[in-house]
Amino acid sequence: MAEGTLRERLAESSAQMRERMGERAPKVGVILGSGLGLLAEQIADALFIPFGEVPHMKRSTATGHVGRFVVGTLGGREVICMQGRLHGYEGNTAQEVAYPVWLMHELGVDTLITTNAAGAINAGYEVGDFCIMGDHINFTGRNPVAGTEPDEVAFRFFSMKDAYDPALRALAHEAADELGVRVQEGVYLGLLGPSFETPAEIRAFRTWGADTVAMSVCEEVIAARHVGMRVLGMSLVSNMACGVEGASPSDQEVFEVAKSREADFCRLVTAIVERL
Ligand code: HPA
After folding, report:
1. What dotted CATH number matches 6-275?
2. Lowest model confidence (mean pLDDT) among 55-64, 154-163, 214-223
3. What is the model's pTM?
């Protein structure tokens, strides 16, 4: 349903959401990745807005992704949370994946925390670790800002230096240290998926300096930086990447590990939000 320009569609979606949100005006957005949806259940005074009820938003079809906005209070702050995200591998265009990020910005969000489950390329990482994204390699082959319409929303030739905000990364380390939760910081590599990588690809990505790999995040972060949002990216290492220590990742393993680390994930993200 791509009627009207991107700017017109965003105006229509945000007007409808604002009407439903009333006095709520969150400045913090959180995107919850595969198997990490529990945090949404911990949001107080929650208002639920399914993606399918927002004009121009695509529905989520991925396993373990509920596909709704949850607006409420977490760690003493007003937040808008995406319980589930849109992926390129579901058949969404880069712009469709980025749309809810632009929409949250339109609603007043200036800080985005995006999370996912990822495979570890770095053999020094352990399954169950958290990894703060220090930078990314966008290997999806796509960019949501391509085309003329994103340029009507904001200037499209922007820098991607420090895309993952250094101050937010420091704050995330502090929160993890205080909770006694093990965190790494590394370079995240994003792919279209949905097939997992080959061992040869993982070996190649290691030589590029990538520490983790998954099938989301990059397009969201590009969209967030396009409109000047501060970004924190956080992965849960759900598996070793294909070929690392003989690993052959599966969707089931990703979900099981995510579920087993969900409680610490919730504590960590809540502690980060408290410190914002
Ligand atoms: N590869 C790609 N995507 C993933 C992985 C992986 O190893 N783990 C979780 N998402």
Report:
1. 3.40.50.1580
2. 55-64
3. 0.97
